Amino acid sequence: MKKILVGIFIILFMFQTSTFAHSTLTKSSPADGQIAGNNLNELILEFDTPIENTSTITLISETGEQIPVEVSVDNNTIVGKINAQLKEGTYQVSWDIVGEDGHPINGTYLFMVDASETTQSPSDQLESDSRGSFNWMGVVLGVIVVLIILTLFTKKR
Ligand SMILES: [Cu+2]
Fold it and tell me: pLDDT tens digits for 66-84?
């Protein structure tokens, strides 16, 4: 009976920590501290869980000017379209979200705009990131398959 109770407590504890973990920012474009070109026209923030549609971001220039962004939320991602061309300087992104567990969470990070840089569009960048890891997985799987075939072949002989 004691063992069962201890087991139940352990399961409840694990369930609680996994269910009630705060949502956090896992990836953004531009990233924290990144130097972007002045062709930058969108911000993309990815979180580790789905977030509420009321979640938002604000973009503030180093002179304290708020740059209008058209915010849309899709599952775990916030996209902010920037309709004006950004001047050179440092910008602060503030994100203010309601996570999967209903907790409001916020944070800020900075990025720079330098006219001599040309950034890929953020969505291209995120796509090439995932494409890169997919290719890597493919290579690993390929090597494993070759090893299995070689092992089978040598065993048969
Ligand atoms: Cu939370």
Answer: 999 999 999 999 999 999 9
